[in-house]
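User: For a teaching handout, I'd like to show students what a predicted protein-ligand complex looks like in token form. I'll give you the sequence and the SMILES for zinc ion. Please answer with just the structure.
Assistant: Understood, here is the input followed by the structure.
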Amino acid sequence: MQEYKIQQEKVRRPGLLARLAGLALAAALALTGCAGIPAGMLPSGGQGEAPAQGETIGTGETGDAAFQMHFIDVGQALSVLVECDGQYMLYDGGNVADGSLVVSYLDSQGVEQLEYVFCSHAHEDHVGGLAAALAYFPTNHVYAPVTQNDTACFEDFVKYTQQQGLAVEVPAVGTSWALGSATVQLLGPVKSYDDTNDTSLVLRIDYGETSFLLTGDMESDAEKDLLESGANLDVDVLQVGHHGSETSSSYVFLNAVLPEMGIISVGAGNSYGHPHEAALSRLRDAGVDTYRTDLMGTITISSDGANYTVGSEHYVPDEQLNPTLTDGGGQNASGSQSQTYIGNINSKKLHLPTCSSLPAEQNQVLFSSFDEAIAAGYTPCSNCLG
Ligand SMILES: [Zn+2]
Ligand SMILES: [Zn+2]
């Protein structure tokens, strides 16, 4: 069994992303103090890095995380394990060839059964490994955007669902599920699409004040429709759509989600050229801290409901992950060249940052150009832009 070591860690407090790159050892200390962390997550020891019990970083609250999200390194594919209060759900299972890796990883995390299995959409790099997971773990519900697809991997997924006496269910937008004390809600797809990627089940997960968005391979058409549906998209952590393809993570979408972190599940040297520079550049412009499984291996986010921490299998310097963000320019590097405009996501009014009637912070969306804001359906405030 592969050892999953926490070698990189960041701590986020509400409204502030504290950069703690370089505190890998401290990170390991924090997690070792927690009896709830499965053995596979602990430092391997014997390397001179075995930490003392009970030491913590930050407020120490992160050591009590009852919520964890694992972006399992399945190469050019996606597989996300979510755990809360001892309950588990699996969102995608990588390719068929990743099936045994996914099963061993879940095993190493102490998974004995799955409350929910979600197939984001019927492409092999998402549904492929789910048959193995369903063959191994008793499951309560299995969801997908369709019940049939003419591929061997999808048929296997259906077959192993049926072997458990279950049927693949197509959930309705707005459905919500409890996973321990976390809430999982289906936000999309809000329409039907010919493009399979756009059929991806979009899940919002809330645990305390921390929030996460899983988007599968959703591309810009579905992103736009989802935005227009009025769904609550504002989250802390975004699974960047379609492995960082330029056809996802549109500017208006990122500005509605306003994530602090974006996780890209992508294979090193993949033939698609993912992640595309255009998507990375939009993520940078939106001030999103980006994490990649091709560079970091499996990425784990732990939350105690107020703060979250990110750990990864391999340490990668922040400059390499987020080149412009660590350039001393700060998160508004793009704003220095042009005027920033602040939109109100409820009233769709557009303001200058100096306006006296700015919306509350959680209702703000930032635009770097006036035209972009107008194109997104915002109208100028009569006070500051009239
Ligand atoms: Zn994919
Ligand atoms: Zn796909």
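For the handout, you might add this sentence: Residues 78, 123, 125-126, 217, 243 surround zinc ion (ligand 1) (CB under 6 Å).
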